[in-house]
Amino acid sequence: MKDTFSPNKKILCTDLDGTFIGNDDSMYELLRAIEDKDILLVFSTGRHLQSVMQFVHEKGIRIADACICMVGTVVYFAHKGELIPDNNWSQIISQDWEREKIVRLVADIKELVWQDDEWQTEFKASYFLRENQDKVLQEINQRMQKAKLKAKIIYSSSKFLDFLPVKSGKSKAVRYVVDNFGIRTENVIVCGDSGNDLDMFKSGFKGIIVGNARTELKDFEGENAYHAIGEYSAGIIEGLKYFNLI
């Protein structure tokens, strides 16, 4: 069972690595600040749940109110101290998704290196791409169009390439979580540092781009984004002050 909240409730939806994670002192300061203001916390990450929970236990912090994992392909809601997978989200994103056809389509592209199996799921096919990026991405897009296959293709951190269902991704997952909580869009703040966070900002959510962000996100110029000077959680704190949330 998912909790619902006042439409005016504030919610912070943050990436983990390179954003929320990076400096423990500022991270704990941020957690105290959002607890003080009763702000909901959602993680939106490329990690799988086991990795998220390992981090939570190592740092001795509470679980998030919801967790978006594997670049927006899996959604969990907190219930009685546990994060429970939302099967409805899986049904939504399964539409028009033909994973095995995509994998076969790009199998002969030598620059693509298959990531370890722990980063592969029913709704995610992930590779490393470190050479000839522009050429390879162009070739992939041409092949996908010719084969009439649909996917969201996300390249981030100059090495990670993910194929995802078109109905998935971080921005659509955030929207799904926010709608399930019953919270208004204007009360949502997203945070990120890399290319797989970009669609959250392009979707119009107000957000914070931390000071250590990669060029692929730092170059975003939308008026909905605050570009922090501070790095990691210190940048999130800076942005929350800018938006008058803390």
Name the structural class: alpha/beta
What is the spatial order of strands in the main beta sheet? 5-4-3-2-1-10-11-12
Overall morphology: globular
Helix content: 25-40%
User: What is the first-to-last residue Cα distance?
Assistant: 29 Å
Percent range for β-strand residues: 15-25%
Number of helices: 9
Give the number of DSSP strands.
12
Describe the protein's architecture and organization.
By secondary structure, the chain is α/β, with parallel strands linked by helices. 35% of the residues lie in helices and 22% in strands. It contains nine helices and twelve strands. β11, α8 and β12 (225-227) form a beta-alpha-beta unit. α1 (24-36) packs parallel to α9 (232-242). The radius of gyration is 18 Å and the shape is globular. 41% of the residues are buried.
Task: For this entry, give a set of tags.
246 residues, 8-stranded mixed sheet, alpha/beta, 12 strands, 4-stranded antiparallel sheet
Question: Any chance you could write out the topology, listing elements then pairs?
Answer:
Blueprint: E1 11-14, H1 24-36, E2 40-44, H2 49-59, E3 66-69, E4 74-79, E5 82-85, H3 87-93, H4 99-105, E6 112-114, E7 125-129, H5 133-147, E8 152-156, E9 160-164, H6 170-181, E10 188-192, H7 198-202, E11 206-209, H8 215-218, E12 225-227, H9 232-242
Parallel strand pairs: 1-2, 1-10, 2-3, 10-11, 11-12
Antiparallel strand pairs: 3-4, 4-5, 6-7, 7-9, 8-9
Helix pairs in contact: 1-9
